[in-house]
Write a structure and sequence with these properties.
Belongs to the short-chain dehydrogenases/reductases (SDR) family. GO terms for molecular function: oxidoreductase activity. InterPro entries: NAD(P)-bd_dom_sf (IPR036291), SDR_fam (IPR002347). Pfam families: adh_short. By secondary structure, the protein is an alpha/beta fold. Helix content is 41%, strand content 16%. The chain is built from eight helices and nine strands. Strands 1-9-8-7-6-5-2-3-4 form a nine-stranded mixed sheet, with helices on both faces. Strand 6, helix 4 and strand 7 form a beta-alpha-beta unit. Helix 3 packs parallel to helix 4. The longest helix has 23 residues. It is globular and about 60 Å long. The mean pLDDT is 95.
Length: 286
């Protein structure tokens, strides 16, 4: 397992950079924004409401009211960042909400038909994240020196979880991050893509989480632990295509170190799917 430490000096390269953080008013997003600001970065926070402890930070913090489920809101967020700072170096696609859908529901409508499950969580945590990353690619690729995208997933994207919509979204984040990191590399774009998979973290996804976890004797990590990993992925130019597991403030790269080697043993001598896709595209181009 590729466990690593994040030293203070590892984060110093973020000074002077411009970072968009979605969901930056609470929990992990807020912790990340505060860390970035303390390191001398400029932050553009896109959230549905400003942080309770909103401060000017010398003009380094810009708040843009943003609902990540709305494409127009995300477009306005990126436009504002470019307008204020002239560039966008890194993007942390972080906005999310807690479980919403009931797939065992017996609730019916006025006709007596079963009601459709809600897709609110998927709209925020998966569609919103994918749209944020799409805009990030559009803007960052315009800069010769490029930049990076950090996606906030979850360790629940690696296991079975009875909160089905949440698990689905986080499995999707993992797949999107792995696919996008491959796509931008093949396209030769100067953009790095990394995915975080934190375990239980004290955030606003579930109310009073720490108090509840204390009752059942399960440790919950502070949002600053995840924020530190997010900033590390931005600051370290060698990080690309990595999946970072975060538990109890400890950090492990698990895709190249664990998941991909595990699948190598599963597939045997059958070729990698992406290699097959490359060869198909080359064959059809000729």
């Amino acid at each position: 397992m590729a466990e690593f430490l994040i030293k203070d000096e590892d984060l110093s390269h973020i000074k002077g950079k411009v970072v968009i953080v979605t969901g930056g008013s609470f929990g992990i997003g807020l912790a990340t924004a505060n860390l970035l600001l303390s390191l001398g970065a400029s932050v553009v926070n896109g959230d549905i409401q400003p942080p309770a402890e909103a401060e000017s930070h010398g003009g380094a913090l810009t708040f843009v009211e943003t609902d990540v489920t709305r494409w127009a809101d995300l477009v306005a967020l990126f436009r504002k960042a470019k307008e204020v700072h002239g560039r966008i170096d890194h993007v942390f696609a972080n906005a999310g909400i807690g479980p919403r859908a009931d797939y065992l529901s017996t609730a019916v409508d006025e006709n007596g038909d079963l009601k459709e499950p809600t897709y609110d969580l998927l709209d925020v945590g998966l569609k919103g994240l994918m749209n944020t990353a799409t805009l990030a690619v559009y803007y960052i690729r315009q800069q010769t020196e490029g930049g990076s995208i950090v996606l906030n997933g979850s360790t629940t994207g690696l296991q079975r979880l009875r909160a089905v919509d949440y698990a689905t979204a986080k499995h999707g984040v993992l797949g999107f991050g792995r696919g996008l990191s491959t796509l931008v590399k093949v396209a030769g774009l100067p953009i790095r893509v990394n995915t975080l998979t934190p375990t239980w973290t004290d955030s606003n996804v579930l109310p009073n989480l720490k108090q509840m976890m204390d009752k059942i004797g399960v440790e919950v990590q502070p949002p600053s632990a995840v924020g530190r990993a997010a900033v590390a992925m931005m600051a370290d130019s060698s990080r690309h295509g990595h999946v970072i597991h975060i538990a109890r403030g400890r950090y492990k790269e698990i895709d190249e170190a664990v998941l991909l080697p595990a699948f190598e043993s599963i597939k045997g001598d059958y070729p990698w799917e992406d290699d097959v896709l490359r060869r198909l595209m080359e064959a059809t181009a000729n």
